[in-house]
C-alpha cells in the first residue's frame, strides 16, 4: 500500500466490536445456545455485510484459535481477497491457547505500524492473572496508517466477568495505554471491548469520565440506530440484558463519530449467533 504524508482528504473507517461467544463443550452450553458450527454462517454474513464498503477494524472477544481462523478465512473467501490479517495471541500462553482478543484488518487498506499484546495484571509482559480476576485477561493494541497518511490506534480488550476490583484496575491500565497512544502519532484513538461493566459501574465511569481522553461512541455519534442493549444471553430473558460492550473514541485529530449501531444477533427462525450483539461505529478523520 502506497503511503503519503497526511492529506486533507477525509479518511472514513468503521469499528466493529463483537463478543462471538467461545466454542464451549456441549455440556457447558447455555439453554438455546447453538454450536459454533451453526452460528458461524450468520457471524460471517453479518461481518461481511458490515465490511463491504468501508475500511474496517473487526475486534472480537472470546474467540478461540479455531474460531478466529474460521472468521478470518471466511472473510477472505467472502471478500475474495487474501488481505485479511489479525493481531493477537491466546491469553493462556501467548500463543494459541485460550481466548483471543484479536483485531482483524485488511493489509491493502491499512499498514501496521506498531503492535503489542499485554496481560491485564501487575506482570503484563507474561501470561498472568490480575487482581483476583477469574481469568487471564489481555489487551491488543495496533497502530495503523491509512493510504491518506492518517493514523489510527485501536485497542481491543475483555475485562473480567467476576471481580469488580479487577475491572477497575483493568480500566486504569487502559487509561495509561490510551494516554501513551495519544502522545504518539495517532489522529484517533479507539478502545473496544466487552467490559463486563454497566454504565453505572466503576470501570465504565473511569473510562468515560472527565479524566479520560476517550468518550463513549454512543454519546458522541451524530446518528444512533438499532438497539441499546448489547448482551442478551441466549434465552433473551429481560432481567439478564445489559449494555456491557463498548466503543470509546478520542484523539487529537480532527475527527467525528458519524454513526452508532447495535446490530441484531438473531434471525427469524429463533437462533442467536452469539449471546452478545455486535456494536458498529463509523468514524471519519477530516482534513485540517
TrEMBL record:
Gene3D superfamilies: Endonuclease/exonuclease/phosphatase (3.60.10.10). It comes from the Eukaryota. GO terms for molecular function: 3'-5'-RNA exonuclease activity. Residues 17-276 form the Endonuclease/exonuclease/phosphatase domain. This is DNase I-like protein.
